[in-house]
Amino acid sequence: MVYPKNAFAQTEKIQFDTYGTLPLEVTILKAAQPRISLLYFHGGGFLYGQREDLPQDYVHQLLAAGVSLYLFDYPLAPEVALNDIYLHTKKAVEWFLTEGWHFSGVGANEYILFGRSAGGFLATLLTARTKHPEQKGLIRFYGYQELFYKEFLQPARFYTQFPKVPPLAAEAMIESQPITHGTLEKRFPLYLSARQYGNWQRYLGNREQLADLAIPAAAYQDFPPCFVVHCKNDPDVPFSASEAFAAQVPRAKTLWFDLEQHDFDRTPNAIADDCYRQMISWLLLIIE
């Protein structure tokens, strides 16, 4: 999505890192009266998606509330292993803390992490492993904290109703060089195949590498306030992931919806409108 520049006090696109020769960029949307910075990581099962995927209506609401947004690239799998993806999201946060915060207009390097779906996994992992006192909260929409749920290890019933994308056809979609932008049209069939055949982890790295990304239970005790959203009948990511997560952290505001949807907020609607209103109210409360 391309956000109109005249909607904001300032829009910047900056290279904060590289993966080899691949530039990693961040889109910074500065609020007119900034109060806090929100660092955002997109979803897409690590295989597709791009940083500017938040619906424009909700971007405008966040900016109006004084939230400056940082929308970060990360290299996609399987061209890049998930371990390396995580390390570059870690570099994104480190860049913000040392340099990037100056673009926010806030006058301090405090921040909240926000991730949707796979981005929620990354934001959770960053919160567990980095422990920066500047992090004031975590927002997680239909995310997860583990990679070995049984739902991820076997063919997903929801995806098997679609025409099959055989593994060989899926592998032909893999690029010869790393990428940060994977459109639905070009890359979603890769994710579809992975979930149809229950081999999604194979695209992220070997089992030992993925096990290294496990979060120990004790780590959750130090989490900042969390805002956790999930649909109870999510056909993609198990609702139980968010239930378990919310039960483990000290302070969690939860919104559970009786919907059979995953990314229920991909386009504006009444339920998503209310969700973002509640999220913004919570966000402003925790930074007071």
From TrEMBL:
<feature type="domain" description="Alpha/beta hydrolase fold-3">
    <location>
        <begin position="38"/>
        <end position="235"/>
    </location>
</feature>
<dbReference type="InterPro" id="IPR013094">
    <property type="entry name" value="AB_hydrolase_3"/>
</dbReference>
<keyword id="KW-0378">Hydrolase</keyword>
<dbReference type="GO" id="GO:0016787">
    <property type="term" value="F:hydrolase activity"/>
</dbReference>
<dbReference type="InterPro" id="IPR050300">
    <property type="entry name" value="GDXG_lipolytic_enzyme"/>
</dbReference>
<dbReference type="Pfam" id="PF07859">
    <property type="entry name" value="Abhydrolase_3"/>
</dbReference>
<protein>
    <recommendedName>
        <fullName>Alpha/beta hydrolase fold-3 domain-containing protein</fullName>
    </recommendedName>
</protein>
<dbReference type="InterPro" id="IPR029058">
    <property type="entry name" value="AB_hydrolase_fold"/>
</dbReference>
